[in-house]
Every structure is written in C-alpha cells, then in structure tokens.
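Severity: low
Component: inverse-folding endpoint
Summary: output formatting inconsistent between runs
Steps to reproduce: submit the following structure tokens with default settings.
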C-alpha cells in the first residue's frame, strides 16, 4: 500500500472521507468505487480542482 500513500488526500466533505486519487480516476478509500465524474458532482469542480 505504500506506493499509494502519496495519492491519499483528505477532503472535507460531510463526513470527512479520505479519498484516493490515482491514474484511473478518484475513488473513495473505503471500498466504495467512485469515478471522477461522481466527485465532480459531489464536491463541485472548484473543490475538486484544489486537489491537483
């Protein structure tokens, strides 16, 4: 898992979930797969763009 550590970013959402950003898109860390589009809808483009 250490190779993913640099991609793990905390994002303040309703329940302060940690998300994993990788080359395949963005997924929730807790086994719930989400696409980049799902996060754009959920967080809004402005919040999402701050992650990069």
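Observed output (run 2 of 3):
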């Amino acid at each position: 898992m250490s190779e993913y550590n640099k991609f793990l970013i905390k994002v303040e959402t309703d329940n302060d979930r940690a998300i994993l950003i990788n080359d395949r898109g963005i997924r929730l860390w807790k086994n719930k797969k989400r696409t980049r589009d799902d996060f754009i809808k959920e967080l809004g483009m402005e919040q999402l763009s701050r992650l990069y």
